[in-house]
Amino acid sequence: MESVKQGSACIALRSTTHSVIGALKRSVSELSAHQQKILEIDDHLGIGIAGLTADARTLAKWMRNECLNHKYVYGTALPSGRLVTDLADRHQRTTQSYVRRPYGVGLLVASFDKNGPHVYQTCPSGNVYECYATAIGARSQSGRTYLEKHCESFEECEKDDLIMHALKALVGCVSGDGELTRENGSVAIVGKDQKFTLIEGEELQPYLDRLELEGGNNGGNADEEEDDDGEAEEMET
User: Minimal CA–CA distance to 84: which of 55, 127, 53?
Assistant: First the structure.
């Protein structure tokens, strides 16, 4: 659980037609590239991670295999609820075995299936929650506060407005006087007639320009933090 709290922030939210994941990417040093925080699992499903990246890649590989096996046998996409339940069981089994340590990563799962859009949160203990919106990782309390304040408006949001809400929630999770940029930010969206699409770099810039015009890119706010008093040690997140 501590590794999840020290990982860089990740948020997710949904409307009646789309699910969105937003994540802050962290670089170990000025000489290294930013690490990927959003991973595509299938056309209808993807994950955002907070915690140990190596553990997340292991779980992502297993989830991709499950989706491929289901599609090969049944010819349809694997229902996200079933996959997330199996994922939670996989998390929980490691907590009662001395052979393996628990996975040190929390996942936010965004998907769209025949029942509509979904957002799930999993944690190393094996708990899984379906949410309208949520945030995990370091300094995520600011993002969670924003999501709680505006969650009633998410239901009828259009795709672009949902992405803007995700970016505004991420702004509060940026450390110190930093700003959300196309290098350290990434967003992914999936929904009705919309395959899982990752938006970052040049594709993210128009949304950041709109955010700047609306005066929302002002960096983190230390007053809103409840459980992150100091700078978290940079792990492999």
Answer: 127
